[in-house]
Design brief:
The chain has 5 helices and 17 strands. The strands form 4 sheets. Strands 1, 2, 3, 4, 5, 8, 11, 12, 15 and 17 form a 10-stranded mixed β-sheet that branches. A 3-stranded antiparallel β-sheet has the order 14-13-16. The chain has a two-stranded antiparallel sheet with strand order 6-7. Helix 1 crosses helix 2.
Length: 322
Amino acid sequence: MTPEEISVSSLKSFRIGNAQDMAGGSGCTVILCEKGAVAGVDVRGGAPASHETELLHPVNTVDRIHAVVLSGGSAFGLEAAAGVMRFLEGKGVGFPVGPITVPIVCGASLFDLAVGDGRCRPDKAMGYEACRAAYRETAAEGNFGAGTGATVGKWLGTERSMKSGLGIAAVRAGDLIVAAVAAVNAVGDVVDAETGAPLAGLLSADGSRRESSGDALLAGAPPLTTAGANTTLVCVLSNAALTKAQASKTAAMAHNGLARTIRPAHTTMDGDTVFCMTDGTVSASVDLTGYLAAYATAKAINRAVIYAESSYGLKAYRDFLS
């Protein structure tokens, strides 16, 4: 038995928006929850670039956040969160502090500076535009948002990598809904979650076929990439009623979706980070929520490469379809 796959629009409390610079090769994706979401995070990669993740620790005071931003641009891209804060403040969303409303915005960035124009990074204006897009259109998958400059299969260098992107998937079990938004920029390869068949990753030296990053590791090939230059970012969304600690546990279980689809995952070259946001409307166990989170994450990662299109001189999954 597998969970029922549905549209992410079934989660009415959340909005997802993209903004990107196609020529520059970078962008950002924002996940909004105006009424506030209980949230958690789990970081497994060795080189994360993140914003306001410490406040998600269960012992810290803030119990709800209003947005998560996934962005390109490496640490420069964290600036997009300021634009999201400005947008939400303008809508009166956040915690009142005297005459000021302070939105709580968390985020993480992936490294895409080697794709397109490395001087193009998500900024305040792009973060603001992603929020506007969340209210006027359905978020596109593939080469959009945080997936604009995403690539996979970089163990032997960017020139042998493939184009990846942004993927979104949602599943239901009874009244419980869990979704995942994934920007996939892994050093490793992406395989089909069900069959293990290769989808995108390391290319042969002549670019004619897909090879295995795992085989390169076993052969002793040193990495031709650097720590922090690769990251898979995920935001899990749910209607489950969870505590902050349970939200972080759900994020931790969602990492199983990375392990099913990315080979290798969680390396010292990656900054893999998973957020979890929940609106707390449905009673559900953390184990079931986490199980569905892993399933949705795996599906979203697969969709990120399936919907990606060749660009910036890089081949994509679709180029190998006969």
